[in-house]
Amino acid sequence: MRTRADKRRFRKEKEEAKSWDAHPEAATRLLKKAFKQGTVRRSRLSPEELGLLVKRLAAASDPVEAARLKERLTRGFYGI
User: Fold this and answer.
1) How far is the C-alpha of 20 from the C-alpha of 43, rounded, in Å?
2) According to DSSP H, which parts of 1-80 are helical?
3) What's the CA gap between 73 and 78, in Å, rounded?
4) How far apart are CA 20 and CA 26, in angstroms?
5) First vs last C-alpha separation in the chain
6) Residue 41, pLDDT score
7) Are 23 and 7 within 8 A, CB to CB?
8) CA separation (Å) from 34 to 7, 30, 61?
């Protein structure tokens, strides 16, 4: 069953993150589907991509957003 969270378009990443937090079952379902299809990106981020994440982390005032960015940095650096 698809939820509204599956179909929405967001203007800002923060809006999208709040939506996924409100609908964890939809996020889990979509991730499982992506893993099955082999469409999950599992590669290292480029230096430019890592640099952009570092800048966003430095500017983040919300601790939750900062934690999420740290996780993305770690995963992007190691390619996991």
Assistant:
1) 23
2) 4-7, 13-22, 24-37, 47-59, 63-78
3) 9
4) 7
5) 29
6) 63
7) no
8) 16, 6, 31
Task: Tell me what pLDDT residue 3 has.
Answer: 53
Once rounded to an integer, what is the mean pLDDT over residues 41-63?
Answer: 87
Contacts of 4 (CB under 8 A, 6+ apart): 23
Q: 60 with 45: CB under 8 angstroms? A: no
pLDDT: is 40 or 70 the higher one?
70
Amino acid at 79: G
**Are 74 and 45 within 8 A, CB to CB?**
no
Amino acid, single-letter form, for residue 4: R
| pTM strictly above 0.85 | no
Tell me how far the alpha carbon of residue 27 is from its chain's centroid: 10
